[in-house]
């Protein structure tokens, strides 16, 4: 299956429309998708909305904060729709599926609300449901974990973040593959092989590429 669409209401810079329609709706292709836009155009907001509603299999937190609400709003909503489910995936998510004429889809909705508790302290409550519109039911944590995504933050320190270790980027990608069990010899071997390959690649590229980049940066500074 693949993520077919994303809708956002009052999420960061995307306000809810005057008629209750989402502030933005994005449709994705089955395969590679690239978001292109100027700074502060909402690209990061879209990515963060996906990882907030689906969760990640890395060590990143996915909490909703007051800064995630559009200015002046107390309620936000994120909706994801998955399509092209395999028979096995349809079996996993059967009670949450929306059955259409020629296809089935999995619709997931997360809502968050700012409220005041009995001590007048601002709190945020969040709900996660799935199913056809107006017929949503709660989505169990064990089922949601099947939807967790692998999120790789912007690369800042390649030497550290591409090195072996449980928190490295390579480890995060490998752990998301069902073929490699947690802490198995196969997992450790492939992570180590990736590290060795990057070290060898760095040696090959050092003089013709990396050193020239460094020289250019030094000249600019």
Q: Averaging pLDDT over every residue, what do you get?
A: 85
How would a textbook summarize the main sheet? 7 strands, antiparallel
Distance between the termini: 47 Å
Class by SSE composition? alpha+beta
Q: Which word captures the global form?
A: globular
- Helix percent reads 25-40%
- Give the C-alpha Rg: 21 Å
Chain-wise SSE layout:
Elements (H helix, E strand, L loop, with lengths): L1 E8 L14 E4 L15 H12 L20 E9 L3 H6 L4 E3 L4 E13 L5 E9 L6 E2 L2 H4 L13 H4 L7 H7 L9 H36 L1
Antiparallel strand pairs: 1-2, 1-3, 3-5, 4-5, 5-6, 6-7
Helix pairs in contact: 5-6
What can you see in these coordinates?
The chain starts with a strand and ends with a helix. Helix 5 runs antiparallel to helix 6. The protein has helices at residues 43-54, 87-92, 141-144, 158-161, 169-175, 185-220, and strands spanning 2-9, 24-27, 75-83, 97-99, 104-116, 122-130, 137-138. 15% of the residues are buried. The protein folds into 2 domains: 2-147, Rossmann fold, CATH 3.40.50; 158-220, no CATH class. The chain has 221 residues and is of the alpha+beta class. Residues 1-206 form the Endonuclease GajA/Old nuclease/RecF-like AAA domain. It comes from Neobacillus pocheonensis.
